[in-house]
Amino acid sequence: DQQVKQNSPSLSVQEGRISILNCDYTNSMFDYFLWYKKYPAEGPTFLISISSIKDKNEDGRFTVFLNKSAKHLSLHIVPSQPGDSAVYFCAASGGNTPLVFGKGTRLSVIA
Amino acid sequence: GAGVSQSPSNKVTEKGKDVELRCDPISGHTALYWYRQSLGQGLEFLIYFQGNSAPDKSGLPSDRFSAERTGGSVSTLTIQRTQQEDSAVYLCASSRVASSGTYNEQFFGPGTRLTVL
């Protein structure tokens, strides 16, 4: 049973446009959510996070939105750049429990 | 400062052999995690060490898998009698754990790509 779902395995976006990556979760005990970015042959790197007490967190071109009632979060990247092309993983946790990761979405930003 | 390091970066082994994968976490990080990523799959949690507490082994797929963390620092993941389905990238991560209980960001190593022939 997948507790964290990223239903789009891939996404293509034109350079300069907005990229929206979606993530759904099932466990209502999750209270902390993170996005990681992974380039080939490298480990994932932390991108942005959000606590369940917030519904939005912004860091430069990256914004994460959390809709607790829908158990849904999304990552917005605007404007998208070719260097953003990578696999993006959504992750969730309740307290100090290990992170539960989604399967990832491969973003391709086309110049 | 130095990040999480893993060795070897690549390992090719024959079915039935044992392998050991090593992880050096960031100095001062009390929590250490092992994950694996099989082809086309997400990150699968394997095991979690937190300070001197008993490790959370709930993600280990079989008793062929085990892990140790010596002196609260370096960790070794051992896979006995490897099978072809064990082929994957094995990732290690570490994090600080805030006293408030707020979850801390995990820093990942580059991974070890294991291929079982």
**Record field, number of beta strands of chain A:** 11
Q: DSSP strand (E) fraction of chain B?
A: over 45%
Radius of gyration of chain B: 14 Å
- Based on secondary structure, the structural category of chain A is mainly beta
Largest sheet of chain A: 6 strands, mixed
C-alpha-based Rg of chain A, rounded: 13 Å
What number is the mean pLDDT of chain A? Answer: 93
Topology as H/E string of chain B?
A: EEEEEEEEEE
> Count of helices of chain B?
0
Beginning-to-end CA distance, first to last residue of chain B: 37 Å
Figure out the total of helices of chain A: 0
Q: What order do the SSEs of chain A take from the amino end to the carboxyl end, as H and E? A: EEEEEEEEEEE
Q: Outline the low-pLDDT stretches of chain A.
A: none
- Biggest β-sheet of chain B: count, sense, barrel? 6 strands, mixed
Structural class of chain B: mainly beta
Shape of chain B: globular
The greatest inter-chain interface is formed by: A-B, 25 and 26 residues
**What is the β-strand count of chain B?**
10
Unreliable segments of 5+ consecutive residues of chain B: none
Q: How much helical structure, as a percent, in the residues of chain B?
A: under 10%
Explain what the structure shows.
The complex is a heterodimer of chains A (111) and B (117). With 111 residues, chain A is mostly beta strands. Chain A has strands at residues 4-5, 10-14, 19-25, 32-38, 45-51, 56-59, 62-67, 72-77, 86-93, 100-101, 105-110. In chain A, strands 2, 4, 5, 9, 10 and 11 form a six-stranded mixed β-sheet that branches. Chain A has a five-stranded antiparallel β-sheet with strand order 1-3-8-7-6, with no helix packed on it. The radius of gyration of chain A is 13 Å and the shape is globular. The model of chain A has no long low-confidence stretch (mean pLDDT 93). In chain B, a hairpin with a 5-residue loop joins strand 6 and strand 7 (75-79). Chain B is globular. In chain B, strands 2, 4, 5, 8, 9 and 10 form a six-stranded mixed β-sheet that branches. In chain B, strands 1-3-7-6 form a four-stranded antiparallel β-sheet, with no helix packed on it. Chain B is mainly β. The chains are: A mainly beta (111), B mainly beta (117). The A-B interface holds A 4, 6, 32, 34, 36, 41-46, 49, 51, 89, 91, 93, 95-96, 98-104 and B 4, 33, 35, 40-45, 48, 50, 56, 59, 91, 93, 97, 101-103, 105-111.
